[in-house]
Amino acid sequence: MAALCCFPATIIVSGNLPSRIRIGDRLPRHNPFKNQRRLITKRRSLIVGSIIEDREAIDVKSVNFKPEEERKEDEEEGEDRDTDRLMSRGINAAIVLAAGTVAVTKLLTIDHDYWQGWTLYEILRYAPEHNWVAYEQILKTNPVLAKMAISGIVYSLGDWIAQCYEGKPLFEFDRTRVLRSGLVGFTLHGSFSHYYYQFCEALFPFQEWWVVPAKVAFDQTVWSAIWNSIYFTVLGLLRFQSPADIFSEIKTTFWPMLTAGWKLWPLAHLVTYGVIPVDQRLLWVDCIELIWVTILSTYSNEKVEAQASEITNSNSSED
């Protein structure tokens, strides 16, 4: 039998016991306060963490907190912006609908003096032919004004299409920008093109096979360079840009716009100079101009917006 004598701090063992318990080894003392200390430490860390989180939340609230008056002012400004936006959209929609109504009415009522006894089919059948006859009569009586009106309409539509292509909703276009483009088309493109096509015929008065390619080459080098420069110059003046900014824009856009035109106009001008009569050329060209004016207007306004953003960024960095 094994005799076990217990002393306060020592175990004396006799007999066969496992080798891991050796004579004279002390038993580990159990500290009843150790777990309590751990619990207290954990509680303290939790309390400190919650206090820090509360302070951070209070700081965020204090940063984002605005007085009630400022919040009311912000809400009123937002409402005013929404109201202005709706009013602008309504004005644009009214302009588009009014212009479209007038145009369609004029085209469909060309024969209103002779409608007695006509059916709707007859009205629609003869309207295109008689509108064309009326257009030819206007070209004979007042060709410059007729071509100015056509170019003004085309340049306005082209800028509107460009704004829609840039991502603006249909009736949220910039009226001032459309007016600028239409003004350039009306005052300059129509009249200049009328005299240019007459000058081009006088410059190449031959009937040889090479005349058409020569006219196309002249158009896409000399005339395109002149007209693109005029277009960007006048638009810059209408935007009240400085001469230095206008010259910089022309310098930047001159070669890209000239080469971009070579992707569109040479094929179109083979028809212009080879098939279309001189008096009818501007109407054909203006139909193609809808695409070209969209490109011109988009490119021009991208440059202006880029310059404006650069100025804004430089001012903000200085502040």
Automatic annotation (TrEMBL):
<keyword id="KW-1133">Transmembrane helix</keyword>
<protein>
    <recommendedName>
        <fullName>Peroxisomal membrane protein</fullName>
    </recommendedName>
</protein>
<dbReference type="GO" id="GO:0016020">
    <property type="term" value="C:membrane"/>
</dbReference>
<dbReference type="InterPro" id="IPR007248">
    <property type="entry name" value="Mpv17_PMP22"/>
</dbReference>
<keyword id="KW-0812">Transmembrane</keyword>
<comment type="similarity">
    <text>Belongs to the peroxisomal membrane protein PXMP2/4 family.</text>
</comment>
<dbReference type="Pfam" id="PF04117">
    <property type="entry name" value="Mpv17_PMP22"/>
</dbReference>
<keyword id="KW-0472">Membrane</keyword>
<dbReference type="GO" id="GO:0005737">
    <property type="term" value="C:cytoplasm"/>
</dbReference>
